[in-house]
Amino acid sequence: MHQDESRIYNAAGVMYDGVVRAVYRKQRLPNYGVFDEVRYFGCGSENPVYGISGAPVGLNVCEDIWYPGDPTEAQAAAGARVIININGSPYHAGKVHFREAMLGQRARDYGVWVCYTNMVGGQDELVFDGASMVLDPSGAVVARAAMFEEELLVCDIEVPEATGRAINPNSHLLISNSGRLHRPAVEPRLAQELESEAEIYAALVLGTRDYLHKTGFVKALVAVSGGIDSSLVAAIAVDALGAQNVIGVGMPSRYSSEGSIKDARELAENLGIELIIIPIEPAHEAYLRMLEPLFAEKGHPEAGLAEENIQSRIRGNVIMALSNKLGHIVLTTGNKSEFATGYTTLYGDMSGGFAVIKDVPKTLVYRLARYRNAQGSRPPIPASILAKPPSAELRPGQLDQDTLPPYEVLDPIIEAYVEHDRSVEEILALGFEEETVRRVASMVNQSEYKRRQASPGIKITPRAFGRDRRLPIANRYAGS
Predict the structure, then answer these.
(1) Considering the entire predicted model, what is its pTM?
(2) What DSSP letter does each residue of 28-88 carry, written as one string?
(3) Fold (CATH) for 11-193
């Protein structure tokens, strides 16, 4: 079929001696999750096989290899013995294992070498994790590039013709995670795979670093409260940007405990970052004096949620004023559990430019904090922060559990409902208490308007809020 030259294609070029010799146009265009390729790209239709160093090679792009019956199969049937598949495949936790299993199946099914190359870096919500790999026709991984690092991997492979004769057995196959070239490996090797917490933490660091650098920021502000979320965000920021480029801002109120203030100071000292302390009590008192008569006149004299959120919004104003004055970006500190249930304050703790742990459930926040503390000789996050019950400290004796189910219960429900599209009935069948499940589902549904106004944040789960999960704010869906 003739390609429409007026269309834009997602394409791969074959270049030699400074000249583009051929172009392959992607055929399988994903249009789910974070992908919108049908909206932008035309669809290719040709399955060429190229002679490269004497070997028959099929070249295709990302989704073209992900499912049986795809262009890879057609290229193998046309004689290709090596398939080079180039990717911008976004990361989520554990995806590298899924990719490897899928690629191994394609290699076995078609009897070909598979050379999978993936980009590295952060772009808005997405992180691309590299982990390029070469698999032999049995599906075994014979070489693997690093995750989250740009690298050029050199791998020698022996490619037989259909008759079994080796074609150019001494040629090198170059698999690049990205454009910046590192010293190539002399021998094929297996890079060490990262464990779960290490992998996710590396993704958060890379995503934070690239978002700031690619949007022109050098320094970041983090509102450090002495709580676990802001402590983890501060640690990630330091690892991404360097301690000299991170400023902590403590904004204690009348309800901030002495322990929290002490913890914030200790965190800043451990991380080696500057800490600015700006008490918000003068502004808080002024707001209350201004609003209390009106609240009473309207029949709401009792202190409640509005008074609590005033504190959060004062903090949002203060840190955004610093951002405007100093030119530094604000990294927000809300986690996925909070964004899911609406346990966040618009124009308060949601104020900022980038939401580092927006897709990290609260229970995982603790795991990542403990992981980070285990790296090096001096744990940056004070043990007292890990030990104390989480609290917004917006009223006396407040705990998160006053409003939310325990996070050990909440997070699995959110995962089932948001990431796996389980219905309330399906979640109840897993053994959760009915009132809790229905309440959580209702909170998730009712909080979409807040999430729509949130900063972008790094995707680390199979389904993040935002481009991954597009639901209308105004709807009659009851969640049942």
Answers:
(1) 0.88
(2) ----STT--HHHH-B------EEEETTEEEEEEEGGGGTSTTSHHHHHHHTT-SEEEEEE-
(3) Nitrilase/N-carbamoyl-D-aminoacid amidohydrolase (3.60.110)
